[in-house]
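[audit] Reproducing an earlier prediction to check determinism. Same input, same settings, fresh worker. If the tokens differ from the archived copy the diff job will pick it up downstream; this log only records the rerun itself.
[audit] input (287 residues):
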Amino acid sequence: MNCFFRPFFAALSAIVFCGVVRGESDSIVYTAPPFQTPSTAENVTFLNLCIIPEDDSFYVSTYDRVAAAVDLAIANANSFILPKAIRLRTVFQSTGSSCSQVQHTVVTNILGLLRSGVTCHAYVGIGCATSAVAMYGIAEQYNVPIFGCPAAGASSLSLNATASRFPLLLRVPFSLSDIGLAFSTFFTRYNYSHLSVFRDDSNSFYSFTAKYIMNYFRNFHKRIYQHSLETPFTGADSTSQRRKAMLEEAKNRSRVILLLTHARLVRQFMVRGFPIDRETVECQILP
């Protein structure tokens, strides 16, 4: 890596955040660090961090919640990490409804940003794997890294093993492979081999996560994959009787139930699941 960019990436490690910020889809917002001391260097190089949230992200942090933290992180990086000849500044640009509604809006909005004259030296804050994969071609063309927050599960959207390698995509918080590994380790540790997956199809995030985890088991934990059963349901229309029937069916074939749904429904499943006869059936519910 070019020595010039090493302090830049070191500073980014202190800046990248797990939430997603939100800006106006038709405007570009430049922000200046509030605590930045003017540099005394004659030639200062400014590097633009393009903060690119989705309006319909699964990760619900908002611009109002994280904008101050981003400004503070930029100020700290400029004051304490970077040399005086290099300064960071942020550009906020919404990618539109690219998470689950209209995935090409991320390409449209980023191209509009670049055509307006903005040069992005790094993309930060994209949350959904669909958005990250959709815009990866732009990042590759300009050789610019994408710091996903978290952009988890991108490899599952590839058509082949070669295309699953995204060297410019840095998923700092976590990836879905980490979650798959955690489940796999748990099953191996306690010798669990039969799994029931309750998948809430009312939100595409849960469907996407279930698909990735099952693919992970198929590739790395064939035993659990061969004894797994996915049960789709619609959380918005879920009734107490439906949840009871799902639990009764699952307990007859599985020792572990994996819930992929909203926290409110997880609590309802847990309340319904406690009456299961624990003396005759050992059943673990993983939300």
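[audit] rerun output stored. Observation attached for the diff report: Residues 58 and 205 are 7 Å apart (CA to CA).
[audit] end
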